[in-house]
Amino acid sequence: MTAATSEAITTTRGSERTARRRRRFPFGKSFASFILIAVAALTIFPLIWLVLTSLRPADTIFTGPIIPTRFTFAAYPKAWVSTDFAIHFLNSLWITVATVVGVLIFASIAGYAFAKLRFPFKNVIYVALLATLMMPATTLIIPLYLQLKSIGLLNDQFGLVVLYVSSSAPFSMFLMRAFFSTLPDELVQAARVDGAGEFAVFWRVIIPMARPGLATVIIFQFLQTWNEFLYANTVLQDTGKLPLQPVLFSLLGQYNTNWPTLTAGLTMSIIPVILVYVWMQRQFVAGLTLGAVKN
């Protein structure tokens, strides 16, 4: 066998392997696409059911087809009026915004300190804060209730904000510390050499580069606070001070539930969450990516 023949056989075999890889690749790609489509369908189905239920007549909730044969918007004005939607929506909005701002302040400052500063008992304090994440909310509700009562913040929206900030700050601090750890220490050292104080370094150097991390905290915290039910329903005893979720929960009847009215209220309540996520989704994805790996 000549060298030319051997080279030709080798080239032919290489071409066959390449062709087999190309034939296998579309199958793998199609299988991955099928799995992703199935997961997306399972994820979005509850939302579709929620919207369609709010638009169907009450007597076809469990007997009619998935897509209603007749659409009606009568449930939306009924949900708006029966729950005093505007008042409780504003309650939810200011409580959520105040909580997000408070968590951002504490989490960003603490995250920077744990990532870039040296101080006594740094690791001990960090582990102690993270240990609070392991305690379920139901085990803390009675001590927190008694503590708010002792300081006169029971049945007060400000007390609820304090409770939200204190319980949510450790997790957000963990996220911000992971993100700040990816930023080069040389930038901080260069700013210090130029005479900048620690607060100036934090505000002028670190925060402008921390937008993806801040966006991640904002989305997580907004979603968590907006949908929170247990603490709000326990701390606030005056119905006029309640946020939206406990009020919507009251639409569930013991023997009968007006499902179009309930789903209409829930559909209106998720609009702010969707808007916040759509507005900050690019920064959110970047924050998750950059905060996951330490350089």
Automatic annotation (TrEMBL):
How this chain sits in the membrane, per its record, is: Multi-pass membrane protein
Q: Name one Pfam family in it.
A: BPD_transp_1
Presence of keyword Transmembrane: yes
Region of interest: Disordered: 1-20
Q: Which residues cross the membrane?
A: 30-52, 93-115, 124-146, 158-180, 201-223, 259-280
Listed CDD domains: TM_PBP2
Domain of life the protein comes from = Bacteria
Q: Which UniProt keywords apply?
A: Cell membrane, Membrane, Transmembrane, Transmembrane helix, Transport
The ABC transmembrane type-1 domain covers: 89-280
Is Cell membrane set as a keyword in this record?
A: yes
Please report the name of this protein according to its UniProt entry: Carbohydrate ABC transporter permease
Q: Which organism is it from?
A: Gryllotalpicola reticulitermitis
